[in-house]
Amino acid sequence: MQIWKNFSESSTGQLSAVTTAINVVGCVVRLFTTASEGGGDAMFRQYLVSLALNGTLMAQILWYARRAATPIAAATKRSFKKKA
């Protein structure tokens, strides 16, 4: 639901990049330990799906933050040129 909301609003709002990054790293670690300790296929698939979803959220945070920063940077450059 969060991924769809971000997509439909073209914004991640107050979604924390730090928390999402920690979730992504945690999923990678869980995948590694599950594979090395023999946790089973079902557990591995669960963490793989979790990584895909958290990775999608992280990609949205990076994408929409970059898109939001571009108009601000352009407006700042224009305001400095007017003052000079």
Task: Kindly describe this structure.
The protein has 84 residues and is mostly helical. It has helices at residues 2-9, 17-37, 41-83. The longest helix is centred in the C-terminal third of the chain and has 43 residues, at 41-83. The N and C termini lie far apart (47 Å).
Topology:
Blueprint: H1 2-9, H2 17-37, H3 41-83
Helix pairs in contact: 1-3, 2-3
User: How many β-strands, per DSSP?
Assistant: 0
Strand content: under 5%
Class by helix and strand content? mainly alpha
Computed CA radius of gyration, to the nearest angstrom = 18 Å
Largest sheet: none
Instruction: Round the mean pLDDT to the nearest integer and report it.
Output: 87
Helix residue percentage = over 70%
Secondary-structure element order, N to C:
HHH
Tally of helical segments: 3
Shape: elongated
- Assembly category: single chain
- N-to-C terminal Cα separation, in Å? 47 Å
Low-confidence stretches: none
What labels describe this entry?
84 residues, mainly alpha
Concise summary:
This protein has 84 residues and is mostly helical.
